[in-house]
């Protein structure tokens, strides 16, 4: 049995953040720990960017400072998620070993002076990374403060350099065995790209005009696999020392660079960093989407590794969180299955690239408003923990998502560059979120039998197995709704005969898919009972097809916009938000899926976790929510009968 998040939480909610004591004089540390205790911090992540402190010159080891920090934290009952520092190599590495530095598609080197300047394919980098990991594991594997390992940080680099090119060729040889197979899969008959030797095969470097899409797709797969090799190499080292300590590496939210399903399967704990824009009216929903995805990757409780206490510094204009919003979004994460609520970072830096990124203690210090809010949240989470930790979030609906399909569908020569998968996914998830329908995410080849409703906002690429899985799901009584640009290509990104998988066309009652009619910004298409945006299609339904919502007016007048055949639905446009919500809510009702709560005021989110009902007011105005029955609000302890009042960004956690 692999360890899980529960081995680190032990019934608590982990609360804390990245702690970078090496940026501060040692006299600050006792003060840090005192303030952490006050804020009910029970976990910090150490060492994420400490490589040059730990190994100031090749092969040297400076562990003294880390020993003292680990001991200090332990003395005060604060657990440590210990990071391997391998995301930011020291300057000496690039200087002595330029082969460790990645190159972009234009051949430019990514130099030290920032971070993440390592080539996933560099044997030298991997050797140094393994050595420091080994020594950390040997030294701290038995330290009583250690609760979890954090490998690297937000794996996200690409490399188009020579060593990566050689690794890419090895990866391709393992996949295709013969050049003929590669030439066929990549369609190299097009534009005279046929390869006569493996040595001629390159990463998709700078070209004159449009790259080969299948080559780009394989390069994305290769990159995800190389980074995963870096992760598993370090993971396996720490596992040898501490088989019972869980291992994680933090994802970025809805990040395209890693095959998130494959990666999650290799982790003991799935963790994510989440930074919605406080000014974004959809910030709460975007957060919910990432939380649902992360919970589904984890197949249970997950870790919010990083969020911001106040403003970030990576947007053009960086807004603080208004009073209460940080608490609301943290409770939202807990509602959606998080058993750890952590921040980047504990103490806001005074120097370096992120000195204007907030921390749990900002430049304003202990008395700062943000820190005071963090402190209150720490107490609330400590109270809540025994009621929620380890419990499950039930969902009857699965949203399908696949990274390979995303990569393939994003090719530069596509029918409309206005179609971006994250936007489409967000629109569909938003419709379900606003209808108070809790959703999991799933891969199209996953077992879907536990869901009453499955929606596929856009699966441009579908393997034969995935198509078979969807068909089988509908055959055994499931309801399926697919959005446009689904089932277009096979796993080599070869367009299916007829322009869309024949079995899917038959499933939806599509006789011919004549043409796509992508829409310009601001352009809409009228349909009976709804208005479409972004995309429309010229479809001929099977003769006698029932239940068709037609386009009205324009080029597509009278043709089907939405088709239904039995329990299979096809939506050939992106309905405006309220129309998509109405459509999916009615399909869900037909499939027997009920919203978490009926009659909720706008902007109020309701989620069940275990026995508990979380009510979250994303609005700035106070609202009253009718809740049948009688409950106890675990935030504050009051009895709730019939209705509960939520203030601006207010929340209630109700136990029957
Ligand atoms: C994450 C990263 C942190 C910090 C943070 C700032 O991407 O893991 O180290 O940079 O963002 O928002």
Structure overview:
By secondary structure, the protein is of the alpha/beta class. It folds into 3 domains: 5-162 and 204-388, TIM Barrel; 397-590, 3-Layer(aba) Sandwich (Rossmann fold); 604-655, Immunoglobulin-like. It has 18 helices and 26 strands. The chain has a 9-stranded parallel beta sheet. A hairpin with a 2-residue loop joins strand 19 and strand 20 (568-571). Helix 11 (283-298) crosses helix 15, helix 12 (325-335) runs parallel beside helix 13 and helix 15 crosses helix 18. It is globular and about 80 Å long. Beta-D-galactopyranose (GAL) binds at residues 153-154, 273, 275, 306, 312, 344, 354, 357.
Write the SSE topology:
Elements (H helix, E strand, L loop, with lengths): L4 H5 L4 E6 L8 H11 L4 E4 L4 H4 L9 H12 L3 E5 L7 H6 L26 H18 L5 E5 L11 H15 L2 H8 L26 H29 L5 E2 L1 E2 L8 H7 L4 E3 L9 H16 L3 E5 L18 H11 L2 E6 L25 H20 L8 E4 L2 H7 L11 H14 L4 E4 L10 E4 L7 H12 L3 E5 L18 H7 L1 E7 L7 E4 L2 E4 L3 E5 L6 E3 L9 E6 L2 E4 L2 E2 L1 H14 L13 E6 L2 E6 L5 E11 L5 E8 L4 E5 L1
Parallel strand pairs: 1-2, 1-9, 2-3, 3-4, 4-5, 6-7, 7-8, 8-9, 10-11, 10-12, 12-13, 13-20
Antiparallel strand pairs: 14-17, 15-16, 16-21, 18-19, 19-20, 22-23, 23-26, 24-25, 24-26
Helix pairs in contact: 6-9, 11-15, 12-13, 15-18
Beta-D-galactopyranose binds next to loops.
């Amino acid at each position: 049995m692999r360890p899980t998040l529960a081995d680190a939480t032990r019934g608590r909610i982990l609360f804390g953040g990245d702690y970078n004591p090496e940026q501060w004089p040692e006299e600050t540390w006792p003060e840090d720990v005192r303030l952490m205790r006050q804020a009910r911090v029970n976990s910090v992540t150490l060492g994420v960017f400490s490589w040059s402190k730990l190994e100031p010159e090749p092969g040297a080891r400076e562990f003294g400072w880390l020993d003292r920090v680990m001991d200090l934290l332990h003395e005060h009952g604060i657990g440590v998620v210990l990071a391997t520092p391998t995301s930011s190599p020291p300057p000496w590495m690039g200087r002595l070993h330029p082969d460790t530095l990645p190159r972009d598609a234009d051949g430019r080197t990514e130099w030290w002076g920032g971070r993440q300047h390592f080539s996933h394919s560099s044997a030298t980098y991997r050797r140094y990374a393994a050595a420091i990991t080994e020594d950390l594991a040997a030294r701290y594997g038995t330290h009583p403060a250690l609760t979890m390992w954090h490998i690297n940080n937000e794996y996200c680099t690409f490399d188009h350099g020579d060593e990566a090119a050689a690794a890419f060729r090895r990866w391709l040889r393992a996949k295709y065995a013969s050049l003929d197979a590669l030439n066929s899969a990549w369609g190299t008959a097009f534009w005279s790209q046929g390869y006569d030797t493996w040595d001629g095969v390159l990463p998709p470097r700078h070209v004159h005009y449009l790259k080969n899409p299948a080559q780009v797709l394989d390069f994305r797969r290769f990159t995800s696999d190389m980074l995963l090799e870096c992760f598993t190499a370090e993971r396996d080292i720490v596992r040898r020392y501490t088989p019972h300590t869980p291992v994680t590496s933090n994802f970025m939210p809805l990040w395209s660079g890693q095959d998130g399903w494959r990666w999650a399967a290799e982790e003991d704990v799935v963790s994510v960093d989440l930074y919605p824009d406080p000014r974004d009216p959809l910030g709460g929903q975007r957060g919910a989407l990432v939380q649902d995805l992360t919970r589904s990757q984890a197949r249970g409780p997950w870790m919010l590794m990083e969020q911001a206490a106040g403003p970030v510094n990576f947007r053009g204009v960086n807004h603080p969180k208004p009073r209460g919003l940080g608490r609301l979004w943290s409770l939202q994460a807990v509602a959606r299955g998080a058993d750890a609520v952590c921040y980047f970072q504990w103490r806001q830096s005074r120097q370096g690239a992120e000195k204007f990124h907030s921390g749990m203690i900002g430049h304003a210090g202990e008395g700062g408003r943000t820190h005071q809010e963090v402190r209150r949240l720490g107490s609330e989470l400590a109270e809540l923990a025994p009621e929620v930790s380890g419990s499950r979030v039930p969902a009857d609906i699965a949203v399908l998502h696949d990274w390979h399909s995303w990569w393939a569908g994003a090719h530069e020569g596509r029918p409309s560059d206005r179609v971006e998968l994250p936007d489409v996914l967000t629109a569909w998830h938003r419709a379900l979120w606003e209808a108070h329908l809790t959703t999991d995410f799933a891969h199209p080849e996953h077992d879907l039998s536990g869901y009453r409703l499955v929606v596929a906002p856009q699966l441009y690429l579908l393997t034969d197995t995935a198509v078979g899985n969807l068909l089988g799901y509908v055959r055994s009584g499931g309801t399926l709704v697919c959005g446009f640009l689904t089932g277009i290509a096979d796993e080599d990104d070869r367009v299916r005969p007829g322009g869309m998988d024949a079995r899917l066309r038959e499933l939806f009652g599509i006789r011919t898919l004549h043409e796509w009619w992508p829409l310009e910004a601001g352009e809409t298409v009228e349909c009976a009972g709804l208005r479409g945006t972004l995309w429309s299609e010229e479809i001929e339904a099977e003769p006698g097809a029932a239940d068709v919502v037609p386009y009205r007016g324009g080029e597509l007048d009278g043709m089907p916009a939405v088709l239904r055949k039995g329990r299979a639905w096809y939506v050939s446009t992106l309905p405006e938000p309220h129309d998509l919500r109405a459509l999916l809510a009615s399909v869900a009702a037909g499939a027997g899926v009920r919203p978490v709560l009926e009659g909720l005021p706008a902007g109020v989110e309701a989620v069940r976790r275990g026995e508990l009902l979380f009510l979250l007011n994303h609005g700035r105005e106070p609202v009253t929510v009718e809740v049948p029955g009688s409950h106890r609000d675990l935030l504050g302890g009051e009895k709730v009968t019939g209705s509960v009042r939520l203030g601006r960004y207010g929340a209630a956690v109700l136990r029957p």
